[in-house]
Every structure is written in structure tokens, then in C-alpha cells.
Design brief:
Elements (H helix, E strand, L loop, with lengths): L18 H14 L7 H5 L5 H12 L10 H14 L3 H6 L6 H18 L60 E3 L16 H5 L7 H12 L9 E3 L22 H15 L4 H15 L1
Antiparallel strand pairs: 1-2
The structure holds a DNA duplex.
Pfam families: Myb_DNA-binding
Keywords: DNA-binding, Nucleus, Repeat, Transcription, Transcription regulation
InterPro entries: Homeodomain-like_sf, Myb_dom, Myb_TF_plants, SANT/Myb
DNA sequence: AAGGGATGCAACCGCGGCAAG
DNA sequence: ACTTGCCGCGGTTGCATCCCT
């Protein structure tokens, strides 16, 4: 429908952020809070488009961002989540405290997809490839997120990321919805889980969303060693579910049997490889999202 | 030692969802 | 019902650095 660009690019800075720009943005947000990205640049004196400001804050400046190597456990979770949800990086990132969707996306594209391929698994479908692909990637030391923000240098043609059999997983797009969440730092054990049944979780119409189930899986799979956060998605009135203000934490008591059932169900789906079950897996993931 | 390809990550781009008018 | 603007997401690109020949 011919929407206007997010901002007039005339006179705006692009490319790497300078420390002074970072400081301006950080100071402004600390003082006024996040949001209103469109008007933020003008108010803060930044010569950047609002979108760029948001990205910089979300992916780099936010104080809760965890920088550094992604641990094997995080790798494991990313792979599992990706097998369920596909390229829903923001959803996956939501379960990895301190990690951004951009970081996870990059990590997947540069490390995990290659690793899976080298292990004989198709990274997009998570199904076994006919034969394992030789791992030709070179190891490289010390590129640990310490990206310089300095100067420029011309660039020569970049090999596109292996286009090899680009099967897209057409899972439903994530939808935005209200959520309540607890930080993962709180121990999973002390967090609460709503008492919804697995069928409720799977019921597309029920309004509860992915993260309940995914966190449940995570809590089980990782045996709480990460301290799981728990998120709740509140259904709408049409489905007779509670709205945010009506939720009482006291009522959200975890029920071990519910968790076990969910875990069983999840394992069942995960442990199967044939086509029929792949379909089931997809619809399972779908049901979590719709 | 140097040049060029490979790698990793920050940043950009375009699109879709949603809410307000 | 339609338009407009904002926000957030996923895909893609740009570029500094690493590593191999």
C-alpha cells in the first residue's frame, strides 16, 4: 500500500554507532524509558532514524544483554526451540535471558546450521540428511563479539550463505500478544505455572501461547539447571480465559503431573522421525502459536 | 609477507500486524 | 471500512578480522 519509509534518510547517520551516539541514546532511555522510537531521535538529539535507535538499544545497549560465548546448553535449547518453532528468533530469544534475536539468528546462521549439517541433519527441517555433509568450516579464534566500530574498508563479493536446498519451513508467523513473564533468574522451582492442561496448551482456540509450553519443556529438559523463567499468555475474553489483571500468581501453581504430561507429549513428538510425525510436530508447533 | 577468501556480527531493509484516527 | 503510522520481526548486507595458501 505504498507506506512511507520509517524516516526520511536525508541527513541521518548510518552505519556503525559511535560511543557518543551510544551515550546519547543510553542516557535518553535511562531518563525517559524505552518506546516512542519514532520521536526519540529528535528528542534525544540523535541523527539516526528511530528504527536504528531501537535496534541499537535492543541488540547492544540494553543493560541486561549478556555478551560473550553462547554456552553448549544455550546451543542445545536453540536447536530444540528451532526444531519446534522454526525461524522465530524473537520467540527463541525470549527464552534465552540476555540474548537477542539478532544474536541468536546470527549464531544459528554461522554456527548451528553448519554444525547440524555436518552432523547430517538438515538445519531447516531437523530431519536426517541422506548423508552427512563434510564439515569444511574453518575454525577461527577470538572473534568473540568484539566488533570494532571503526572505519570502513571496501569489500569484495561475499559468498552468500550456502543456498543449498533452501527448504523453508512454513510455520505460522508469531503473533504478538500480551504476556506476563518472570525473569529467568528467578528459579524455575519457585516460579509458577498455570494449571492449564496439555489439551488447553494444544488447543488453538484457547488463547494460551507457546511460551508456557516451551518453558515447561525447557524446565524439564534442562532439569531446572538454568533456572527457568515462566511466561504466561493471557487469553481473550471470547475464550473465557483470564485477562492479565485477573491473573493471580497464587493461583498459578505448578502441577507436576501437568509438566510431566507436557514433557511426555513433547518427547513423543520429538522422538519420531517419519513424515507423518513431522507433520504432527509441525501442527504441534502451530498449535502452540495460534 | 601478502593477498584473497572465509567468517562473524552489527546494522540495514522491507514487510506485516496492530491500533488509532 | 479504510488509511496512516508505529513497532517488531526475519532476511539480508556491510565490513573488520581471521586464516589459509
Amino acid at each position: 500500500m505504498g507506506r512511507a519509509p520509517c524516516c526520511s534518510k536525508v541527513g541521518l547517520h548510518r552505519g556503525p554507532w559511535t560511543p557518543s551516539e551510544d551515550a546519547l541514546l543510553t542516557n535518553y532511555i535511562q531518563e525517559h524509558g524505552e518506546g516512542h522510537w519514532r520521536s526519540l531521535p529528535k528528542k534525544s538529539g540523535l541523527l539516526r532514524c528511530g528504527k536504528s535507535c531501537r535496534l541499537r538499544w535492543m541488540n547492544y545497549l540494553r543493560p541486561d544483554i549478556k555478551r560473550g560465548n553462547i554456552t553448549p546448553d544455550e546451543d542445545d535449547l536453540i536447536i530444540r526451540m528451532h526444531s519446534l518453532l522454526g525461524n522465530r528468533w524473537s520467540l527463541i530469544a525470549g527464552r534465552l535471558p540476555g540474548r537477542t534475536d539478532n544474536e541468536i539468528k546470527n549464531h544459528w546462521n554461522t554456527h548451528l546450521s553448519k554444525r547440524l549439517r555436518s552432523q547430517g541433519t538438515d538445519p531447516s527441517t531437523h530431519k536426517k540428511l541422506p548423508q552427512p555433509v563434510k564439515h569444511e568450516a574453518r575454525r577461527r579464534k577470538g572473534s568473540n563479539g568484539t566488533k570494532n566500530t571503526s572505519g570502513k574498508k571496501q569489500r569484495k563479493g561475499r559468498a552468500k550463505p550456502v543456498p543449498a536446498e533452501k527448504h523453508k519451513v512454513h510455520l505460522p508467523k508469531a503473533v504478538r500478544f500480551a504476556s506476563l513473564s518472570l525473569p529467568r533468574n528467578d528459579s524455575f522451582g519457585s516460579s509458577t505455572v498455570t494449571s492449564l492442561s496439555p489439551s488447553q496448551v494444544r488447543d488453538p482456540g484457547c488463547g494460551f501461547r507457546t511460551e508456557v509450553a516451551v518453558d515447561v519443556f525447557w524446565g524439564n529438559l534442562k532439569d531446572s539447571d538454568h533456572g527457568g523463567g515462566v511466561s504466561f499468555f493471557v487469553g481473550d475474553a471470547d475464550h473465557g480465559l483470564v485477562n492479565g489483571p485477573d491473573l493471580e500468581w497464587q493461583s498459578l501453581v505448578p502441577t507436576t503431573s501437568t509438566l510431566e504430561k507436557l514433557y511426555e507429549e513433547y518427547l513423543q513428538v520429538l522422538n519420531t522421525n517419519d513424515h507423518h510425525d513431522q507433520v504432527e510436530l509441525n501442527s504441534f508447533a502451530e498449535s502452540l502459536l495460534v
